[in-house]
Predict the 3D structure of the following.
Amino acid sequence: MELLEQRIREDGHVVGTDILKVDNFLNHQLDTYLFEEMGKEFARLFKNKKVDKILTIEASGIAIASVVARSFNYCPVVFAKKTESLNLSSEIYSSEVYSFTKQKSYKIMVSKKFINENDNILIIDDFLANGKAAKGLIDLIYQAGATLAGIGIAVEKGFQDGGKMLRDKGIQLESLAIVEKMNEKDNTIVFRPRSMNE
Amino acid sequence: MELLEQRIREDGHVVGTDILKVDNFLNHQLDTYLFEEMGKEFARLFKNKKVDKILTIEASGIAIASVVARSFNYCPVVFAKKTESLNLSSEIYSSEVYSFTKQKSYKIMVSKKFINENDNILIIDDFLANGKAAKGLIDLIYQAGATLAGIGIAVEKGFQDGGKMLRDKGIQLESLAIVEKMNEKDNTIVFRPRSMNE
């Protein structure tokens, strides 16, 4: 998606070999106008699929998913939680996810009330790298007997293996920007040509 | 706000003396159409104020704030984080918040890049009870030398003291539904008459 790639070029900062900081529009400060445009693009890319629920994960996925829902007829958005709370009922599906940025494993949880076998679920998240979070969310969907419609990602790190792993399973994965290479020294970011994914 | 009160009456569950579960539309499963309507109402209530940034807090505040931004000309949304991350720069404002639902204190953090003395900030959150989270967010705003335009809350627990504490400081606090009394036995929820706040 040209608008997103352009924004990453302007505002993204490469840190080390692995981290692409996009915290001024995607995951700390949020540009919700951009998210609406992303929603329109996801709706176009997934127009072949039935989508009646969106599943995402705390915390930055929530912002994108909540705005994107507008382009899917305001379907319900459910977010998987990472922390126990008095507010979370005991009837949950749960899975384990390892986070490289936080350098630890954590549990993700979703109430059994909110995903079930009638749901056609689109997973939305801000980043895809090794695919651990996506795998955890897919696990929750399968536990519930729901249908995975596809996965919509803002920024995929194409040099990590999550995207290949998911596409090899036959899952419709649509990433609006795929970073092929990035270099901290001169802050260059090279995107995978979009025609290769359309 | 009639639409929100009606929804709470239909879908809210009183648990014990303190907890109002609204997890099927407000803070686990999300009704983003309702959030858009709430955004229009906040825009009406704060039309006397200059608002050029929205500040909220992980996790459930993010959903509402991201959708509400649409009614404030898609102004940037910034969310305070609760956990350290490699993605969070070392230049932060921080404050301490005690959570009764999670029964512990936690640190909230926001990058110094994203709030500054030129900002007119509207705080948006899902719940107001004792006002600890709001106080923490106000502290971040004052540390940055920014201006607090007001506070917009979805559900205020009027039987706790956060609302009074904030209004007594002269802060424009607008809660779209104020629960005056609630009773677990028959799940009755009594709202403060709206005319008293308009």
